[in-house]
């Protein structure tokens, strides 16, 4: 069975309020978006009618998501909520509804289904590398070049 898994941007865009499909999210994403005052009653209705389900990913799925995010170099850009959405998608083989580039990049590298909301979605998929524009060296992480002290930049190495 396919699951639609919503990140916070899907709620801000109104996805679950315009759809008759069942949706899933995690408690950390729900905690992030439940302050939406104008839709608070609508959120309650979605939960009461079981069209929105809150589900936690397993520890194993969470570890897989963290490893994948570190492998692509997106980990520093991803919140706990973002990681929970990726982990839930790994576990359920669902479809993530998001416009977040980092979530999309990790998910596409894992060959998970992604649907954008208000954008065309990402076209370039790859792994991030940190590089020094001063001495032109690549680094796995960091903010400053260990050789010359220049602030590091990031670029996507496309697959």
TrEMBL record:
Pfam families: PIN_6. CDD domains: PIN_Nob1-like. GO terms for cellular component: cytoplasm; preribosome, small subunit precursor. Keywords: Hydrolase, Metal-binding, Nuclease, Toxin-antitoxin system. Residues 5-91 form the Ribonuclease PIN domain. Gene3D superfamilies: 5'-nuclease (3.40.50.1010). InterPro entries: NOB1, PIN-like_dom_sf, Ribonuclease_PIN. One of its GO terms (molecular function) is hydrolase activity. GO terms for biological process: maturation of SSU-rRNA. Belongs to the NOB1 family. Toxic component of a type II toxin-antitoxin (TA) system. Processes pre-16S-rRNA at its 3' end (the D-site) to yield the mature 3' end. This is Endoribonuclease Nob1.
